[in-house]
Design goal:
The chain has 212 residues and is α/β, with parallel strands linked by helices. The protein is 56% helix and 12% strand. It starts with a strand and ends with a helix. This is BDH protein.
Length: 212
């Protein structure tokens, strides 16, 4: 948030946590925690400052992710980002009449910049699994998934300033964009396929990636 002589005009909802794991691997408490921080946390902050933002014709910036469009082993994070996108879509339309602008930042993989997700060992994941899940999966599979996800983390861009630049533009530009996608060409291509092709095509692409 930012106070200036012109009043309260800028709110950036940036808080977020991430983890990796297939749907049944994570307990309900983890889903609740992620919804509370990544989704409800941003909503709570927005509601608290909405009167001031309307008064001063301010701006609200939300940190989403390209992972709102597809998921590669972190469906819990993807779920919260997709929900934030829809919240913003409603808010952006509603705020137009007050002169309040709502912007979404959609970074690609910046795991090396943000350290949002530390690497996970197969042992850590296995030790957290319920007995039911251990009966379905084996340690070799969990190791494969951990290796896959950790390799994605290691490919993350170290240049987090690109995302900061987008946030600054959203706050200061005379005509900010509704969405800023800050991602590599390969990541943008995945979003393009997800948006324009039938779901079966995207599922095939992601299944292939997961099998590599």
């Amino acid at each position: 948030s930012h106070f200036s002589p012109t009043g309260f005009w800028g709110l950036v909802n940036n808080a977020g946590i991430s983890t990796f794991g297939e749907t049944g691997w994570l307990p309900m408490e983890t889903y609740e925690k992620f919804a509370d921080v990544n989704l409800l946390g941003s909503i709570r902050t927005t509601l608290a400052f909405l009167p001031l933002l309307r008064k001063y014709k301010g701006r609200i910036v939300f940190m989403s992710s390209i992972i709102a469009y597809f998921t590669l082993g972190n469906g819990i994070y993807s779920m919260t980002k997709a929900a934030i996108e829809k919240f913003c879509d409603a808010l952006r339309l509603e705020m137009k009449k007050f002169g309040v602008q709502v912007c979404i930042i959609q970074p690609g993989n910046y795991a090396r910049s943000t350290k949002i997700q530390p690497p996970l060992s197969a042992e850590e994941i296995w030790s957290e699994l319920s007995e039911e899940e251990k009966a379905v999966y084996n340690k070799e599979y969990v190791q494969e998934r951990a290796n896959f996800f950790n390799s994605i983390l290691s490919e993350g861009s170290p240049n987090g300033s690109e995302v900061v630049d987008a946030m600054v533009d959203a706050l200061t530009s005379p005509a900010p964009k509704a969405r800023y996608m800050v991602a590599k060409l390969k990541e943008k291509a995945l979003v393009f396929v997800c948006a324009l092709f039938p779901t079966v095509v995207m599922d095939s692409v992601l299944s292939y990636a997961l099998s590599k």
